[in-house]
Design goal:
Length: 122
């Protein structure tokens, strides 16, 4: 499946999750990522997540994420193997919510951070 089709799948999933989320304001982390998946529709599993860009001043930048980093785990969901649905629940949070992320730099160094969902800038 092409990257653009993956982005459409993630967008549809985010809309589904946003419609079922509680009444809080939807948070923002400030990353652009490329996803590789396998499987069928909502049963799709993440194979990899690579950070393409991190917005200046974003929660992701403050936590230390950088372009080129690969995400290895979102909360208790390992990548590869995490379902798209489970990963989406981990990343679509309200402002102030915390998500734990384990990642690997291009040089192989692994690290773990806590991302606090912020407000999207105007």
């Amino acid at each position: 499946m092409s990257v653009s089709r993956h982005r459409i799948l993630v967008l549809l999933l985010s809309m589904l999750l946003a419609s079922t989320a509680n009444a809080g304001e939807r948070g923002w982390f400030g990353v652009d990522a490329r996803y590789a998946t396998q499987g069928f529709w909502l049963a799709r599993k993440l194979e990899s997540v690579e950070i393409l860009a991190v917005a200046h001043g974003s929660p992701a930048q403050h936590a230390g994420l950088r372009a080129g980093d690969r995400i290895l785990r979102i909360d208790d969901c390992p990548i590869p193997g995490c379902s798209i649905l489970q990963a989406g629940k981990g990343l679509y949070r309200n402002v102030g919510d915390v998500v734990r992320v384990r990642a690997r730099r291009p040089d192989g160094t692994e690290y773990e951070i806590q991302l606090v969902a912020g407000r999207r800038p105007n």
